[in-house]
Design a protein that fits this description.
By secondary structure, the protein is an alpha/beta fold. Helices cover 53% and strands 12% of the residues. The two termini are 32 Å apart. Bound molecules: guanosine-5'-triphosphate (GTP) and magnesium ion (MG).
């Protein structure tokens, strides 16, 4: 069973659905109750309802650009269908958001293939505290459970606790961790990790990085250097540059996404901490505005709390 099948199978279980619904509870509570309030005493979706809807979407962190696109679609729909009952607004919104996200070229992870690369190298980037190390631990757990040999690289050498944290995850989920002393060169750790993955016949190598880079040039240089050394060992590596974003930071997550995509070739996104926030609407904004697919979502702190992102399921869950 390949990684994709494993995730897919897992994703389709009632437990996974439940975890997603539960993870989105706070966002849903904010979003749906505001919509319900906006349509109280209204029979049809009129100008006023649309104005309120716009405000609700913006304040739910969907972002202005994406909100305007959604409102435009709802307006067109209302004009076309003439009489739109407020009771149908949820359905309408769900359908139009799904249609909008489907227009984005980025495909859900279901279409993503990786199995022909060995070792498949993932470099994980993102600012301080967004959940990089936790996401790596969760991912390692899932990969291992699907029969892959995984190695982790502790290339966040900035502080001792970072190395200890990833080692702890390694022990917890039963995968090897390659590390050096705190303060050593991150690129050197990345090099060692990929080399070790090759000699050990590992399927996947995941490299943790530090989030503390004060400016874009420093960030670009550092990540560029880490990338380059890995490429020397395995041509084409890193195959995946996964940018981790904390959904609870709302619009900041969108800003970080802009910054990091300019600094390095990010080709996958993970949005974490959805369970702790009412700002889950940011996932809609990010999926709409960036051509890079949201691959994973974090819905809790435990090792099972990482899911593959599926646009349709996500929006279905939001409006359930
Ligand atoms: N509730 C919740 N908490 C999460 C999730 N993902 C990560 N966290 C928590 O967020 C905090 C920071 O996570 P880390 O994985 O240490 O973040 P990091 O990006 O590696 O941080 P630095 O190494 O300091 O840059 C931890 O307390 C995690 O348990 C999630 O999906 N849900
Ligand atoms: Mg970390």
């Amino acid at each position: 069973m390949g990684l994709f099948d494993f995730f897919k199978k897992k994703q389709e279980t009632p437990e996974a659905q439940e975890a997603l619904d539960k993870g989105l509870e706070k966002t849903k509570a904010g979003f749906l109750s505001k919509i319900t309030k906006a349509v109280i005493g209204k029979a049809t979706v009129d100008e006023e309802v649309l104005d309120e809807l716009e405000e609700i979407l913006v304040t739910s962190d969907v972002g202005v650009t994406t909100t305007l696109k959604i409102i435009e679609r709802i307006e067109a729909r209302v004009a076309r269908d003439k009489y739109v009952n407020t009771a149908e607004l949820h359905v309408l919104l769900r359908e139009e958001i799904q249609a909008l996200l489907a227009e984005n070229n980025s495909s859900d992870f279901q279409q993503f293939e990786y199995s022909n690369q060995k070792p498949y190298v993932i470099m994980v980037v993102g600012v301080n505290g967004v959940g990089k190390t936790t996401t790596i631990g969760k991912l390692a757990h899932q990969l291992r459970a699907s029969g892959n040999k995984v190695v982790l690289g502790a290339a966040d050498t900035f502080r001792a606790a970072a190395v200890d944290q990833i080692k702890l995850w390694g022990e917890r989920v039963g995968v090897r961790v390659v590390s050096q002393a705190m303060g050593s060169d991150p690129a050197s750790v990345a090099f060692d990790t990929v080399k070790s993955a090759v000699s050990n016949g590992d399927d996947v190598a995941i490299i943790d990085t530090a989030g503390r880079l004060h400016n874009k040039v420093a960030l670009m240089n550092e990540l560029g250097k880490i990338k380059k050394v890995m490429e020397k060992v395995v041509p084409g590596a890193p195959h995946e540059i996964l940018l981790v974003l904390d959904a609870s930071t709302g619009q900041n997550a969108i800003e970080q996404c802009k910054q990091f995509t300019q600094a390095t070739d990010v080709n996958a996104l993970a949005l974490t901490k959805l369970d702790g926030t009412a700002k889950g609407g940011v996932v809609i904004g990010i999926s709409d505005q960036f051509k890079i697919p949201v691959k994973y979502i974090g819905v809790g702190e435990k090792m099972d709390d990482l899911q593959l992102f599926n646009k349709k399921d996500f929006v279905d869950s939001l409006f359930k």
